[in-house]
Fold each of these.
Amino acid sequence: MAAVEELTSEFVSGFDTDKLDWIHLEGRTQSADLIDYWIAVLGARPEDGRIDFLAKWEPNAYCHYHRHVGQTTSIVLEGEHHIVEESATETIHKTRTVGHYACNPPGDVHMEYAGPEGSVLFFSMYAPDGNLFEVLDQDNNVLAVATIEKLIEGNLT
């Protein structure tokens, strides 16, 4: 057992995120919060409507306000991650820590942001029509649609 304790986490996992092709997304939310996150596709089967990717947020940074239009499974791998969901009557703030697992059906509308150390999440999505999520304005109007093909191409605009 002592030999296992000597191994580094990089050696154990064998997975080096520095070697992935990352798509960098930056900007400001409508309330002027910093948008600064990255996406790296791990694998995809567009013909089956499936894609797996990593997303990482810089410390205290947000992603775009969006709606998932495909079934989404996520696992928090690093850091603290926040989800803010708003409805007509309430705002729900969820804090997710390392190891948190979620599997949500399509239709999940929310804003996400990282804690003070940033965050890294694994996502696996099933979207039979290829549409993964919609970027929304504050009135929930669709500004853009992220698709499996766009993520594979590294172009979300």
Amino acid sequence: MGTQARFRRHTMYRSALATLALAAACTTGASCGSDGDSGGPSDAFVGRWIKSFDEPSATDPDATGFSVTCTDTNFTMLSGPFLVWNNIVFEHGVVTDLVETSGNCPLLNWDIAGGGKAATVPNPDPVVDQVPECAVEFEYADATGVVLPGLMILHPDAGDAWKFSLLGTKNSFGAPKAQLQGSAKVDMARLDATDTVLETTVPCTYAGTDTYFRFTQP
């Protein structure tokens, strides 16, 4: 992350200890360790997935393997680690197999791929017949410390270049694990201290990998 600016996430996240306590309590339920895939392939994805806070950092629940990279000189100070999905919520879709409804970056539609072991974002999005995208509001501090608003619109790369994969392994609580991996082009805008709206002339990139564990299921 640049030294002149700092992202402040718009969504409030659970603390690592609270997540641990809830996950530990879940192990007493009969269905907590179940993959929930007795129905169609999408059943293995549906539910809430929480980012594994021990990856990449055991001490910072907000740490992430994803970063924003900007070459536009008006936005290079915003480059650095940025967590969008502290949790991912998949529901059964109507036009697509899945819809991600956490509200962290509304709204992406997903289809099952990889023999039922991965989900990818179709392009074009069949719901709106356009390039898929989702939007994230953020705040940043400028060089003088003034906190200002910004907006980033993510356009996931096609196919396996952006995917959510079931890992076939479980964490210490017995919950199935999965991985979000890939890259997305990012159109970004921000308001500066003079109330001028600045927009990227060259898209930024959002890329990386984070691991999740399944917290709820249908």
Amino acid sequence: MPQDLSLGGLLLAADALGGSSGGLAPASREEWARARQQWQDESMRHAAAIEKKASAEFSSRLNLWRAYLQELKEKPRQAEAYAFEVRHRVILDRLLPILEGGAATRVSRLAQADDLLRAMFRPGTFIWASELKRVYPEGSFWYLYGRPSEAK
């Protein structure tokens, strides 16, 4: 059964394709370029609807991310799931540029969650597939370069 992608899931999939596009065959690279252009055209044409979806997803993802961080604070062994759970944080960053209204409030709430993570974070190596490293630079996606400590 096919699964519908959320807007954030679509953005992550696009990032993954963009990160590995150098390894695609020429015909596949052309198809990827057409798909990117189609997305840009559609996102311009349906900007209000996309922003509405992004706003709803941002709130939902932020709640999931904050819940995970709170659980991590109480049960440090949950750090084992970090490489999977951190996708919520990446999606939050990817959704922010789409959102116009209430950006300051969203950024502030995200910064509060980041403060919680920083209190238990240990910088280290990139935790996802190496081809994504150029898509997610350390300066902007610092939370992908290390893990939370498993000790209280």
